[in-house]
Write a structure and sequence with these properties.
By secondary structure, the protein is α/β, with parallel strands linked by helices. 40% of the residues lie in helices and 18% in strands. Strands 1, 2, 3, 4, 6, 7, 8, 9, 12 and 13 form a 10-stranded mixed sheet that branches. Strands 5-10-11 form a 3-stranded mixed sheet.
């Protein structure tokens, strides 16, 4: 009996020892696995920590950005403005944000009674006292400055964005690009057939807004050509919308306008443009979206080329302010300052243009 009890005690002792060893082994295994997991996850945890701190920095930075709310001296009244059709997306997107954030300021867009809407008509209406400030996508002319001086004030351009001037043709035209000089010679009536610029034997039909209503200009970089009359073969259109419609049914047609207005259109083809024939730059982001792919996909503005200045014809989007120490100057300055804030510059980019800073 004693032998039996001794054997049981020995077995129980061995079982207890085995279980203790098993438990210790499991604990060591958990420790080892936990250590390995910590080692592998450590970079991710550190990375996440860095991201969190980076986000905190970013949030801190964004809180210091200038907004529509931070602009001082915004008048509490209703004002008339107008001008460049290239600004249409800014009026839709940015101006609506301004009026939401600054409800004390009411802006009313006014179309010209005579002529087509554009930079020229807007500046003319500002000179005539029909607008409080104007939006322009071309520089002021000497004549406009002289007219302002005669009326006892000056005009100031306040750039708030950049756009390119794109040249568009019928999609079937077998021409890939033009130099700035060739484009100018076409509109002066000195180049009249596409075979003179490497294209088919086809007469050129240049379309343009009338100079007195023009929204954009192509001669501002050449002082020798400023003020020269356009060729007798130029056909005048009321607006870019009309020009695009005509180009779609005119095989030899050509038109120039705000790149933001025409690059995304499905019924026309934008040409490469260059200062020289060996330096042709597209106004759209490559690769080009063909008309067959549109409107499922659309060409987008080549903002990089406009931003770095490699695109040859760039238009400044400027607020034209009447310098008369009156309410017009106050609202013109306030509107320009609103668009120059960080919030305004981001909104201008959202509208499809290039910010100036």
């Amino acid at each position: 009996m004693d032998n039996t009890n001794q054997k049981k005690a020995l077995i129980n002792s061995e079982i207890a020892l085995f279980l203790r060893g098993l438990i210790i082994g499991k604990v060591l295994t958990v420790i080892v696995i936990g250590g390995l997991l910590w080692w592998f996850l450590k970079p991710n945890l550190l990375s996440r920590s860095n991201v969190d701190s980076s986000n905190q920095s970013s949030n801190t930075l964004s809180s210091t950005e200038s907004t529509f709310q931070t602009v001082a001296d915004v008048p509490n009244a209703s004002f008339n403005y107008g001008g460049s059709t290239a600004w249409a997306s800014i009026r839709q997107l940015v101006d609506s944000q301004i009026q939401s954030d600054r409800p004390e300021l009411q802006l009313r867009y006014v179309d010209p009674v005579n002529g087509s809407p554009g930079s020229s008509s807007g500046i003319r209406m500002l000179l005539d006292g029909k607008l409080d400030f104007a939006q322009s996508s071309r520089p002021l002319t000497d004549e406009e400055q002289a007219m302002a001086k005669e009326r006892g004030f000056t005009l100031k351009e306040h750039p708030v964005g950049k756009d390119g001037i794109a040249v568009v043709v019928n999609p079937s035209l077998k021409v890939s690009g033009l130099t700035v000089d060739q484009l100018q010679q076409i509109y002066l009536g000195r180049i009249t057939n596409w075979n003179q610029v490497g294209g088919p034997n086809l007469s050129i039909t240049p379309l343009s807004q009338r100079p007195e209503d023009a929204d954009t200009v192509i001669f501002s970089n050449n002082s020798d050509l400023k003020g020269q009359a356009l060729g007798s073969n130029v056909q005048y259109v009321y607006s870019t919308t009309e020009a695009v419609r005509q180009l779609s049914k005119t095989p030899g047609g050509v038109y120039y306008a705000s790149a933001r207005s025409v690059v995304f259109q499905c019924s026309v083809k934008a040409l490469l443009l260059g200062r020289t024939s060996g330096q042709l730059i597209p106004p759209y982001r490559e690769p080009m979206v063909s008309p067959e792919q549109c409107p499922r996909r659309r060409n987008q503005l080549n903002t990089q080329a406009i931003k770095n200045g490699s695109y040859p014809i760039i238009a400044n989007l400027s607020v034209i302010i009447k310098q008369n120490k009156g309410r017009e100057q106050q609202i013109g300055d306030a509107y320009a300052n609103l668009l120059s804030t960080d919030q305004g510059q981001k909104a201008i980019q959202q509208a499809g243009f290039v910010a100036v800073r």
